[in-house]
Each structure stands twice: as structure tokens, then as C-alpha cells.
User: Fold this.
Amino acid sequence: MMSFVKFYAFPICVLYCLDAVLTSTDDIGVKVRLAGGTSNGTGRLEVFFNGQWSTVYSRSFDQNDAEVVCTMLGYQNRGLVSVFKNVFGAGSGPIISTDFNCLGTESSLVNCSQPNSWQVHTDWRHSSDTEMGCEATPIRLVDGDSPQSGRVELFISNKWYTVCDNDFDDNDASVICRMLGFSDSGISRAFSKNHYGQGYGGVIVTQLECDGTERDIKQCKAEWGTNSCDHTDDAGVNCGRTEIRLVDGVTNTSGRVEVLHGGKWGTICSHGGFSNQDVQVICKMIGIQNPNAFGYSNAYYGEGTVHMLLSRLACDGSESDITQCSSTEWAGPSDTRLESDFMYCSHSNDVGVNCEGKTKIRLVDGVSAQSGRVEIFHLGQWGTVSNKYFDFHELKVICRMLGFNYSSKSFIKDNAYYGQGVGRVLVSEMQCNGDESDIGQCSATWWPMTDSLKHDADVGISCDGYIPTKLVGGSDNASGRVEIFHNGYYHTICAGDFTRRDLIVVCRMLGFENIPRSAYWRYVSTFEQGIGTPGASYLKCDGTETSIAQCDGHMPGVVDSYYYKCDHAKDLFVSCNGASEKIRLVGGHSNNSGIVEINISGIWGTVCDNGFDRLDAVVICRMLKFPRPERAITYTDAHRGHVNGPIHMKDLKCNGVETSIGQCNPEMDTRGCQHSKDAGVDCCPHCEISGQLVG
Assistant:
């Protein structure tokens, strides 16, 4: 679009446009005029001397000399002067060369040096005639996004000219904005490479070097007139704030960043980096100053369909507009390169921001309000989080986001423990420090870079650490088959490789602390077996955990070879209070001896003699309260006769110090055992009658 911005008023000559009509004469008859310019205030300097008009050799003519000429011509805007070269055409007649050496305060050139010291040359070429101006430079901005932006054009000698971008910088832009009457917002920004499109006509000025304090570019160092620049080098400025918007976010403070330029909205490429400082400046531009704001690279809010505008954004965070940020690369509106050629970018690199600094997040399919599969709302649907690199640091942040307390009971479950989600896997490789207020502040790989990930790695968490757990079939509230609730059902625990450390954690889950040494575990007997699939197997706790969910091992949702090693014959039975089993000796010749029977779930059964040894007998006699259990001896192969009923266990592994055979971790699968192999003991082999039967 064409937008013409106001420029300083200047008198357009009606007559003698190529020859100034205003002259000045001092007391001794020296006249000056500006010829060939657009108005009486600009043109080629000519001096009437010795009865004829002469030009002035420019080599030693300087700003102070020009000040005096402007004073002679009646201009009061002292300081708005410059020395041009080859702008207003070559003069004719003699050429005056001298060092005027004016201070700038004199009323006439003759007060600077006496005319009798002026040298007049009639054979010199007019290639170095002095050209200058006394009035404000006519200037405008064209093809910008607003009245305060566009290509810089100057009106000189009845034509509009552009400015070459050689050495064109923000100081130059600041002066131009001041000339146009725009208040100094501190965000004046220079653009090069025809950022606002190519102009027409000539390029009038190059090597512009302002320090930013000048009121007119005539006060700046510059090269005016003929140069090697063309319109691909046209300079532009933006004197106002950049128009910016956020698209496709969850709220109006989040989304893909788009910038208005050349009448079109363009995106920002993440190539070269997209930092938190960049995010802070963008959010500041939409009116939000939030240290917790964060951003995304790689089109998290979807790919734009508009012009790609900006790359290598490098803000330090103090700026109030992205045009103030250094090391930026802008594409002009006439840029016809393919996106893949433009700064190595495509719309897959579009950046987005979340200025509120809050990710919409929830927990799904858990057993409490504080547990479940982690899901994030994005582009109108919920997506999941991959468990890669996910640890307690991320757990802390998410619990905090949800308003829950993180504690020693909180845990993480991977591999879709709370079921597989649907939609996209939105984030992976999350690496938080743990003190962030939102996961958006953490290092991570975000969608669409996660597009190939599967939901079998969806992560779940529990902030309260709650897993419904119960005991089934025990003789008291501290013993029984252990079952945990998952996915709507109670499941047993496979006791493969189970240890006392695992036992301590299971009992702690059940509400028991200070687990006594007499606490024990075993496999269930045949009639104690559960149903369904195991809920956990091959645990590897260190004893400090508050829940088996914090232990290594295999939990629901994982299908691997360990499950095939488990069946309900290995279901876990625990006694957390260590209550002694009911035990007795039957069929012996005295109360001291007999076949060993143990009562499980109200049913008496025998012990198979597989692996049965003297240390096992010592523990049994201790349970029966014999005074010298270490004297016990064993009998095998039903030495004391046969009994009826089931065979409850085999392969006791006592070391002789236990107070209960449950602590010996017996094998409860007695397939292959017969009553002909019932184990027996004699707790007092040298006693006539002693001991006490229990049961």
C-alpha cells in the first residue's frame, strides 16, 4: 500500500524553479543566492562578485560557512544546513576558491574573509561546485505498515529520492522520525535492503552518519548526490510501535506470533534461537510483563500460512519493541525467495508465546483427584506427555501447577500406567529444575517435533501417592493376600524375587509402620489365589519408599516377559504385624515330636520335606515355645506317620533365628509333594514328656 506521511512544509517556487530568486547583498555589494534547487532554501551556491555570478569551490567550504550564507538569505533556523555535491547541476561562469573560515555567527561572508583574498578561476571545471540548503529537508515515509513507518524519501530539485542503506542505522532513523514530528519513543528502527519495497527515481544520499541528536539529516555527515547505490539498497524506518498479534492460542495471551509488515501479517522464524528475552519483549508489546512467560519454537501453535518475516531475533529483554532487538533479519515485502531459501526457515519454525505463563493441564483416569495420566490442552484437544527424561523435578512442577502438594508420597508412573491417551503426544524429553511455576518454562521437545511418538509411553503421576490397597483372606487386619486397585479393578502382586525391603514398603502402604522382625511374606496357598492379571511384579524396593509405585519393578500397563513368569500361585501374602502362625505337631510318640502342621485360612496342612533341615526345625520348635529349640532334630519322608489334608508349603529357607516360618519365605507351590514326604520334628529328643502343643 502507499502511505504518504507528512513532511515539513517548504515553499514550492512558481517562477524560476531552476534559478533562485532570493538574493542577499551586504554593505559592499556582495550578493549570494541558491540556484537550481527546489525552493529558495536549497540549491547551488552562487556569489555575485566583481559584477558577475560565480560558483564556490567546495573543498574548504564547511558547515560554519553555510550557516553564514543562510543568515545572509534571511533564514532563522540556524544549523539546518548541509553541503551537497552534484545535486543541483553544474554552474557556469567563474569559480571562487578561498578559505572563508567562518565561525558561523557572522552576518556576511565578507566578515569571514576579505573579498580581495578571494581567488577567481575562469578555467576550472564546475564538478566541485558548493551546494547547500537552509530549510528543513522535505521528507516522507512510503509503503509502511502505519503512518509512522515506510521507505525514506526526500524531495530535492522537484523529485522524490530515496536514501541508500550504507551505514544506515538506528541513530539515523531517530533523526528522521524527529524530522517527521513523531515523538521520540525510543524505538525508532532502521531497515535496509528495501525492507519497505523499492522506490523510484534516484538515490540521493548515502553514508549517512547521524549521532541521533540532530534535528535534520543536513546536520549529519553524509554523501549527497551521485553514488553507486540502487533501489535494492533503499533505507526505511519505523518510528512507531510494531503491530503484533497472537494466533491459535488457548487464550488471547498465547499463540503463534505474527507481525504486520507491508500490509501483510508475517511469522517469526526460530532459526538462530528463540530465547526467553525474546518472549519477554513480545509479551511486553501486547501489554503483559510477566517473568514467567515462555515461548515455543517449531510451530507449536500450528504453521502460519502468511509471509515469513523475521529471523535471528536477539533481544536482551530490556527492549519495548522487537524492532529494537539486535541481530535481526527481516524479509522485505518484495522478497520472492522460497521459504526454504529464506534464512533456512519454513513455517515449521514459526515461534509462539504464552504470555500468561500457564499451561492448561489435567490428570485423567487416576484413582484420586491428584493422580492420573498427564494431559495438556492444545489446539482444541487434549494431548499427552512422554515419559522420556521425566523424573521428580517434572513431578514437582506439575503438582504445583495443579495446586497439589508434592511430598515423599508423590510418584511417577510411566508406560501408560493410567492408560493410553488419544490425540497427540505433545511433549517429550522434559527437563525441569523443579522450581518452575509451569512446565512451559522447562527445557523440552514440543509438538510437532514429537509427532512420531506413541502413547505406550504416556506418563502418569500421583501427587498424593494414593494407591487403594487391601488385604484379602487373612486371619486379622494385618495379614492376607495383597491387592492393589488399578484401572477399575483390584489386582494381585506377583511375589517373584520379593524381599523384606519390598515387604516393609507394602506394609507401609497398608498403614503399618515400625514393621517388626516377625513380619513375613509368602506365596499364597492354592485356595488363597486371586483372579485377573497381576498388578505388579518383581519389585525392587530399597525399603525407604512410601509406595511400591516408587520402586523399580513392573507395574500395570507394561507387557513384558516378567508377566509370563507370574501366575496366581505366586500371589503375595503378607503378615505386617508378624502374628505367629498356628502350628502343631501331630502323630508323635510325645508332645515333643510329630508331623508339622500349620493352619492357613482355618485349614490345617503339612509341610513338604523338600529342603527341610535342622534350622527349619529350630524355628518351628521356637514357635512352639520349647525352651531349648536349638536341640531340635528333623524327620523326613513322613517318619512320624501320615495325615490327611492339604500340603501347605515346602522349601523353608530358615537360618535358625526367625520367630516364624513366614519369615523364612517358604515356597507355597507344593505341586509334586505327597504326604509320604511330610516333614516332622522332635523338639526335645532327650525328653520323656515336655513341651507344649499349640493350636
The chain has six domains: 24-133, 139-238, 244-354, 361-462, 469-575, 582-682. The chain has seven helices and 42 strands. Residues 1-22, 336-341, 559-563, 690-695 have pLDDT under 50 and may be disordered. Residues 180 and 568 are 87 Å apart (CA to CA).
